[in-house]
Fold this sequence. Notes:
This protein is 44% helix and 0% strand. It has 66 residues and is mainly α. The chain contains 4 helices and no strands.
Amino acid sequence: xxxxxxxxxxxxxxxxxxxxxxxxxxKCCECIIYHKRKDxxxxxxxxxxxxxxxxxxxxxxxKCMS
Length: 66
């Protein structure tokens, strides 16, 4: 099995994360694992303005969605 993401280019085009130095940009599986380990959610789940704060906490997500 290959470790290369076959959707990397498409994922990068659709990724809404504004944190530019992120090494996981377009690598959705890695992003989810990374944030899950930190008890966070990936930026793509947040509304645009909330994503730009870089606060990926679950409590911030709940506030944004209320």
